[in-house]
Specification:
168 residues; alpha+beta; 4-stranded antiparallel beta sheet; 3-stranded antiparallel beta sheet; elongated
């Protein structure tokens, strides 16, 4: 019986020591995060101190030379010359009509009993696609005179000028 009591007390003592050691070694994730956060904060303080030192040594910015939000002062208008007599006045400028942006992007050909008929594919200024054949009018300005394999001839209704579009 004495031997059993000794064995039981030895077992309890060893179990109590093991549990105590395990509790001392354990660290919680919160403690690890706190240690990492403290190290990060110390590093940031060090970097901020270095930046303050460098900024203290940097030259101060100069005052702006120009202000893009302020207009320049107006200068007095130049003295006007006397108007020219009507005989010396230059002729009025004739307004030039700007030609619309047209581009030939393709030519299609269809075989008929009368022979092949070509259709020109022309793009306008506003992403318009016009499919035209000989004799049609486009943009109320041009008559289609001829459609070739790689070109189209347009006649300006107002001036009679021929405009040629070439397939690019």
């Amino acid at each position: 019986m004495l031997l059993g009591t000794a064995a039981c007390s030895a077992w309890l003592a060893s179990a109590a020591g093991v549990a105590r050691q395990a509790q001392e070694v354990r660290t919680t994730p919160r403690q690890i995060e706190a240690a990492q956060f403290d190290a990060l904060a110390a590093d940031m303080q060090t970097q901020a101190g270095r930046l303050r030192e460098r900024l203290a040594q940097a030259p101060a910015p100069r005052e702006a030379i120009r202000n893009p939000f302020r207009f320049a002062e107006r200068r007095p208008a130049a003295v006007r010359q006397r108007p020219l007599p009507l005989s010396e006045a230059p002729p009025p400028a004739v307004p030039q009509i700007r030609e619309p942006a047209l581009q030939l992007i393709g030519v299609a050909e269809t075989n008929t009993m009368d022979g092949p008929v070509r259709t020109a594919l022309i793009t306008g200024g506003h992403s318009e696609l016009m499919m035209v054949t000989v004799g049609q009018r486009i943009l109320s300005r041009y008559d289609v005179v001829a459609v070739g394999a790689d070109a189209v001839e347009l006649k300006d209704v107002g001036t009679g000028a021929i405009r040629r579009l070439i397939l690019q």
